[in-house]
Design goal:
Elements (H helix, E strand, L loop, with lengths): L8 H14 L2 H21 L17 E4 L7 E5 L18 H8 L7 H14 L20 H13 L4 H9 L12 H6 L12 E2 L2 H12 L51 H5 L18 H9 L1 H16 L3 H13 L5 H20 L5 H4 L12 H15 L2 H4 E2 L1
Antiparallel strand pairs: 1-2, 3-4
Amino acid sequence: SKPAEGLSAGERSALIDYYFANYSSNYQEQTHQLYLARRALVDSVENVQEVMVMKEMEAPRPAYVLDRGVYDNYGEAVYPGTPNSILPWKDDLPKNRLGLARWLFDEDHPLTARVAVNRYWQNYFGRGIVRTTEDFGNQGELPSHPQLLDWLAFEFVASGWDIKALQKLIVMSASYRQSSLGKDDLMEADPDNLWIARGPQTRLSSEMVRDNALVASGLINQRIGGESIRPYQPEGLWAMNSDTYVQDTGEDLYRRSLYVIWKRTVPHPTLQTFDQPERTQCTVRRQKTNTPLQALVLLNDPTYVEVAKVLGELITASNNEVEGITKAYRRLTGRLPTDEEIRLLVELKFQQLNKFKAAPDKASGWLNAGEYALDDDLEKAEVAANAVVASVIINSDATITKR
């Protein structure tokens, strides 16, 4: 209703948009082609996994000391920096995350390499050269072997931060290759092996206990990367969060424990029983407990019952009981069984075999555990009896303790 010369800029723009959207067939055709092109783009990229990344702001956001912790009560302004007592900041380093990374990996930095090699040492020996691996500050302990720590750190940096070379250096050392068995007087004088006068003796971590069993049975799926997995766990645990746990099938059941899905409010019960941290905070040094519940898990958890079934099949398919039990024992523990251990396990096998032959239904729990399909040509009672033998080996101290 307005004359053209009386239209404002906003009204002109609205009229132009209205015209193109309703009266311009050429515009409508081009818009439709654009829609199709965008839909094809979305269809081609939506299946690609995306990872959020951080980007530096062109103008850094100012930061302040908050007076009494009140979020909007700004005090003194603070700026990026690092402790000069550790390593002075070089003038050529940018004051951002890139500069911080270069500062951390400067060849003159006294902490980065030492902290790293100390954590790798802890993985093998169960105790770091600095026992407080999470704390190298004033509240932490002094290193038991400072010169060893310095030398390992120097070698690590000189190798170009080659982690694989560092692992090889540690495991091929005379210290690591010692027997973990010490004389009584040495064990009494140095119970924590501070002198490194014997090899390491430490309980496997929660992930290692499960992975070791999967490797020993041959079930392990060593595919690297991918989404989290959902192995066996009791039904209904996720109901407390109004969620549903859908168990995986096939090879995903046998992937490494690194890939087990993590739900902070409902952690995986088997792994938690073996002291897996809750991840509410960074945990560098795990606690190690020894409880009856751990034995119950190894006896009853579907993963370990299935592993026992597979090893029972291995023992049954061997030429004789001694050969089969020796194979299973060595796979699980890394050593050969003693004559007394063989005698006890063979005796157990025949005790269980007589029970299962007398009551075949009692073998069903061992034979039907998990998804692994047994060889139908083998005698089921004997497989079940040998599965019991394998379960006893899994539950032994020799299996869950590295020596």
